[in-house]
Design goal:
The chain is mostly helical and 155 residues long. Among the domains are: 73 residues, Winged helix-like DNA-binding domain superfamily/Winged helix DNA-binding domain (Arc Repressor Mutant, subunit A, Orthogonal Bundle); 33 residues. The protein contains six helices and three strands, in the order H-H-E-H-H-E-E-H-H. It has a three-stranded antiparallel sheet. The protein is globular.
């Protein structure tokens, strides 16, 4: 197997293990909410004055998909829509108190996971950490460019 295949397989395996390990605590701490509900809620909470277009672009989804998601999150009382006084046309989203509570629980759980896994990163040198960060940035830029190409299905 080529090294690039080993790396990709390793990354997938790492993410699967990470997800499996965290799944129980997430379900326990965020009962009644799907993973996607929590992540979209968190994203809206971290991006003030989010509108449909910005959400679609940032989350790599269509406006139609974002419309469905925001409608569902409004029904679950995690977010609310609003309009700015100076722009009656555009609809924006923000967290409700319930949404803020979900975001806080999610952040606390991720903090616990980071603390649990800190030992791995403490064993790495600054050079190794920088190399990993460089790879992640480089690969992300490559995927961004691929997504922009005609026929990629992401535009």
């Amino acid at each position: 197997m080529e090294k690039d295949e080993q790396i990709m397989q390793g990354l997938i395996e790492l993410l699967n293990k990470w997800g499996r390990l965290n799944e129980f605590r997430m379900k326990e701490g965020l009962k009644g909410y799907k993973s996607s509900d929590v992540h979209y809620t968190e994203f809206i909470g971290e991006n003030a004055d989010s509108n449909l277009s910005e959400l679609a672009q940032s989350l790599y989804m269509t406006r139609g998909a974002i419309t469905k998601i925001t409608r569902k999150l409004i029904e679950k009382k995690l977010i609310e829509s609003y309009r700015k006084p100076d722009n009656k046309k555009e609809i924006y989203f923000r967290l409700t108190k319930q949404g803020e509570a979900v975001k806080t629980i999610h952040e606390k759980l991720h903090s616990e996971f980071r603390e649990r896994d800190r030992v791995v990163f403490e064993d790495l040198s600054e050079e190794q950490l920088n190399g990993i960060l460089d790879f992640v940035r480089h690969y992300s830029q490559h995927l961004d460019a691929e997504m922009e190409k005609p026929g990629a299905g992401c535009n």
